[in-house]
């Protein structure tokens, strides 16, 4: 797929820069949704954690004991689900509270995974 290129190079600094940019975008998005929940009178908490998302989410559910967990579904196809699994499916099976999964079709997924 890269026949017209001599090489592809990304330095550790490039990756660190991308990681920092993605973190900032994620925090802004999280802040937006928390503010929207509060504006609508919905009690909401949000924080960032490191680790495997499905494990971290279920651990935090056990710690915080929310009334409800809402997770998104990226619309992975059956092949991807078998090999990757999904965070939402794991949470439905293992979270110690009711879980609502917001689904979408695979063709509705954003081009950039950070926007997912």
UniProtKB/TrEMBL annotation:
A Pfam family hit: Usp
Domain UspA: 36-103
InterPro entries registered for this protein in UniProt: At3g01520-like_plant (IPR044187), Rossmann-like_a/b/a_fold (IPR014729), Universal_stress_UspA (IPR006015), UspA (IPR006016)
GO MF annotation list: AMP binding
Protein name (record): UspA domain-containing protein
Organism: Aegilops tauschii subsp. strangulata (Goatgrass)
């Amino acid at each position: 797929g890269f026949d017209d290129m001599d090489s592809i190079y990304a330095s550790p600094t490039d990756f660190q820069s991308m990681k920092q940019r993605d973190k900032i975008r994620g925090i802004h998005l999280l802040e937006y949704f928390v503010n929207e929940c509060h504006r609508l009178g919905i009690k909401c908490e949000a924080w960032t954690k490191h680790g495997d998302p499905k494990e971290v989410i279920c651990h935090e559910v056990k710690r915080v004991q929310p009334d409800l967990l809402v997770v998104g579904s990226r619309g992975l196809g059956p092949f991807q689900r078998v090999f990757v699994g999904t965070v939402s499916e794991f949470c439905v099976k293992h979270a110690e509270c009711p879980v609502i999964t917001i689904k979408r079709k695979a063709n509705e997924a954003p081009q950039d995974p950070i926007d997912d």
